[in-house]
Every structure is written in C-alpha cells, then in structure tokens.
Amino acid sequence: MAAAKEDGNDTLDELLKDKARIEELSSDEEEVFKRGNNDAANVGGGVPFPGMDQLKPKRKLEYLPPWLHDASINLFHDDLETPTSEAQQKTRAECLPLLTGEDTQGLELNIYGLPHLRRQKHTDFLRTTFNKLPAPYQVVDASRPWLFYWTVGGLSFLGEDVTQYRERLIETVRPLQNPTGGFGGGHGQYSHCACTYATVLALAAVGGLEVVDRKAMWHWLGTVKQADGGFRMAVGAEEDIRGAYCAMTVITLLNLPFELPAEAPARKAGLDTFTDRLGEWVGRCQTYEGGIAGAPNNEAHGAYAFCALACLSILDVPHKSIPKYLDVQALASCLASLQTMPEGGFAGRTNKLVDACYSHWVGGCWALLQAALSGGSSGRNSVKLDDLWSREGLVRYLLCCCQQPGKKGGMRDKPSTRPDGYHTCYSLAGLSAAQNHYSYSKEGQAVDKQSGRLIAAFHWTAERPTVGEMKALKFDEEDRVGFVHPVFVLPMDVIEATRRQFAESRL
C-alpha cells in the first residue's frame, strides 16, 4: 500500500471510505427492492440467491452514439488473430465500459452522464512538474524544454495564469541557450530545433521571450536550412518535417528576417530565404496513401501531417499554400481513417492503437484542412468537413477514457496507462479542437508589406460552440477548454501578444 500512496493513487482505505455512503434509491430501484428482484433471482427456479435483491443494476446511459451500439461494434468479424488484433481487442475491452457509462471510475458526471473535465485535478497534476522530479525522469534529461512547454501550455489551456512562473522559467532556460544561437535540451548540449521550439513556446506563454538572443537564433537557423528546401533538426542531424515546422514557428513568432544569413550553407545552392524550396520539399513528404511522412519516402504518420499543414500555413495563407503543395483530398481521407472505432480517439498510424496525444496531432489538422478547402473561410458557416471526423467521438474518448481517476489527476494515453505531461497537454489541445470553431480570414496576407514579416499564421479567429452544439457533443461549460491557436498550439491571446511584442523589432 505504501507504493500506491507514493504514486499519488488512492489507498484501499480511502477508496472504501469514499464508497461507503448512503444513496437514495430511484423509483425504479425501489420497486425492484420491494419485489425482491424475484425475476432475476429465479431465472433457473429454486431458492433466490441471497442478497440478489440488493444488487444494483448496471448503469446505462439514456443515449449512446451509433458507433457504440452492439450492432455497429459487431458489424465486422476478422477471424485472423495477430498480436495487433489482440492488442486492439484488449484496448476495446478497456474502453467500452467507460464509453458506455457502465463504469464511471467514480468521477463526477455532467448533465449528460459523461465525466466532467477534472480541471482542478489536471491543474494540480501539471504543477507537480515544477517540483523535484523522481529518478525515472532522468531519461528525459535531454528534453527539459518539452517538460516546460507541456506544463505551462497545459495550464494555460485550462485558463490558469502562468505568468507567475516567468522569472523561474527564464533563469532555468538561460543556461540552455548557446552563444551560437538556439537552445539545447540540457546544460552543455547542442542546439536542437525541437528543444528550441519548445523553449520559445514556453517563454511566450509566460511572457519571457526577451531572454532569447534573436540575432544568434537567426544565424543558427541558417546553419540548419538545407539546399533541398528542408531543415535539419540540428547541425549534422536528421532532416525531417519537424525541423521545418519548428524552425518556421520560431522565425515567425520572433519576427526574424526570412532572408538567409550571408554565411548560410544553403546560399551556395542558390537559396536566398528560409522559405525557398520549402513548400516543394513538404510536398515530397506526402505518401501514396495520402498521409505525410517525416521525410520523403518514409512511412506516413499523424503527427507529421500536423507539422506539414502548420508549416505550410506559416509559409502562406492555407487556402493557397496547402492545395498548392499537397493532395488535400487524399490527406483528409487518410486522416479520417485514423479515427478509431469504437474508442472515438485517433491513432497515429494505420492499424495502430488509439492514443490520446493524437487528439491534437490529428484532431488539430481539421481546422487547417478546413481552411485549405474553403477558400479562406473556415468558420461555422463554411463548407463543412465535420462529416469526415467525429467531434463527439473525440470528446467522449477524452472525457471518459483519458482522465486519471482518484486524487492524482492528469490525462493518459488510454485507460491501461499512467498520466503524464505530454498526454495531458495534447489531450487538452485536442479537446479544444473538437469543442471550438477556428476560422481563417479571407483577407489574410502572407507577408507584411512594410516590415517583410511572415504574417500568414496570424489571421486566425476562434468561436465558442453554441448551446446546441455543446448538447450534441455532450459536454458542459465547465468541461470546455479555452481557445488554442491552430498553428502555434498556444492560447490565442498569447500569440497575439507575441505578434505585437516583435511587430517593430529589427535585428
């Protein structure tokens, strides 16, 4: 029991104490009690089973979506058993009782019978990252900036004021910044695009971007720009779609010149700007099945699809850049196939298990695709893509299956796993994508004519759902997550503040 206590889970004594309460019987249950439940007890004749009359019937929700009906679940049968099919069956068995309401895990329920978003518990869980971490966290010592971003990002999605952590974060990341530009994952480590991206987002969230050496950053990013148009993750490291998205995010938020530094190696190949050949390189990452790979000729992956779409949405307005370089219909079809049944969440690759983090990596793609297909108007009244994915399915999966019960809080991959900051942050971002509406302005421009700044990604607006939509998706106001920017994955007001902070900045 000591291990359970240290883990933050409820002990057996606490669970029994919580469960030991008197509940008033409903009228139906009272009638069953009065009858002694004879029908159930005497199915086989003879003496009724002692205590049968006191057993509560299994809880059932009044409404279940079509994909959770037995007829839908049992529609297809695959007689071929493989390790993959066995894992899928196990995951389905874990999720179904939670999705149908048979097992509520003791969570407080909203008016539709689904668990409330455990806002305070998730907030408390994320805040523990600011304390001394246990020994197993040594394995992520080279990824410290991600811990900062997942924590302050997740807290800000929940509506928490994270500016209180500004000075602590600045002092923590200052030693991670290299004199040659960019941030490493830990002390004394080489600068890396992913760690630089996470650091910049975390600093933006708390209002601490003044610590960034923008001129050195510009020069360092010039060293990872490649002659074929893509970006390496670090000097001499792999070239992939993450590097392109991370680099373009940093360039845009910090308002760095999009002309390459004079010493940038890519200039020898005739490139003049960070955007040269970038769109063509992203286009070559699309696979035969319509998805996006990390690099040309690799396997498609849901997270890379988001990186590609977001990168192109920085490069130019999405209804121009995305259709120009990608087969949008094929990509939409591929991403739609990643929504799993009956869980309702998304998998990262074909024939893989549902995972809550793809609520963002795939669920976050739909606003970008909507903008690409609707000619710049992607709001509630534009051409709909909703039929290609189920917002209701994603909301139900996240609320029912991905919230850690008990005292600990946090969100998890699936019911059999433990919560962590990564899945908490991206589950909340995915919940925001499913609950809210994001629109792109038809009048959006790619480049500011006066300053030359890339501004294509700053033309997004957000709308809250209507009362009718909330009813259809089965969540209350207290279950709603705030607006998360479709490209930069930070609160909308944080992105606007960052845009203004560097609006007139020059190197």
Automatic annotation (TrEMBL):
<dbReference type="InterPro" id="IPR001330">
    <property type="entry name" value="Prenyltrans"/>
</dbReference>
<dbReference type="InterPro" id="IPR008930">
    <property type="entry name" value="Terpenoid_cyclase/PrenylTrfase"/>
</dbReference>
<dbReference type="GO" id="GO:0097354">
    <property type="term" value="P:prenylation"/>
</dbReference>
<feature type="coiled-coil region">
    <location>
        <begin position="5"/>
        <end position="32"/>
    </location>
</feature>
<protein>
    <recommendedName>
        <fullName>Protein farnesyltransferase subunit beta</fullName>
        <ecNumber>2.5.1.58</ecNumber>
    </recommendedName>
</protein>
<keyword id="KW-0175">Coiled coil</keyword>
<comment type="function">
    <text>Catalyzes the transfer of a farnesyl moiety from farnesyl diphosphate to a cysteine at the fourth position from the C-terminus of several proteins. The beta subunit is responsible for peptide-binding.</text>
</comment>
<keyword id="KW-0677">Repeat</keyword>
<dbReference type="Pfam" id="PF00432">
    <property type="entry name" value="Prenyltrans"/>
</dbReference>
<keyword id="KW-0808">Transferase</keyword>
<comment type="similarity">
    <text>Belongs to the protein prenyltransferase subunit beta family.</text>
</comment>
<keyword id="KW-0862">Zinc</keyword>
<dbReference type="InterPro" id="IPR026872">
    <property type="entry name" value="FTB"/>
</dbReference>
<dbReference type="GO" id="GO:0004660">
    <property type="term" value="F:protein farnesyltransferase activity"/>
</dbReference>
<feature type="domain" description="Prenyltransferase alpha-alpha toroid">
    <location>
        <begin position="117"/>
        <end position="450"/>
    </location>
</feature>
<dbReference type="InterPro" id="IPR045089">
    <property type="entry name" value="PGGT1B-like"/>
</dbReference>
<keyword id="KW-0479">Metal-binding</keyword>
<dbReference type="GO" id="GO:0005965">
    <property type="term" value="C:protein farnesyltransferase complex"/>
</dbReference>
<comment type="subunit">
    <text>Heterodimer of an alpha and a beta subunit.</text>
</comment>
<keyword id="KW-0637">Prenyltransferase</keyword>
<dbReference type="GO" id="GO:0008270">
    <property type="term" value="F:zinc ion binding"/>
</dbReference>
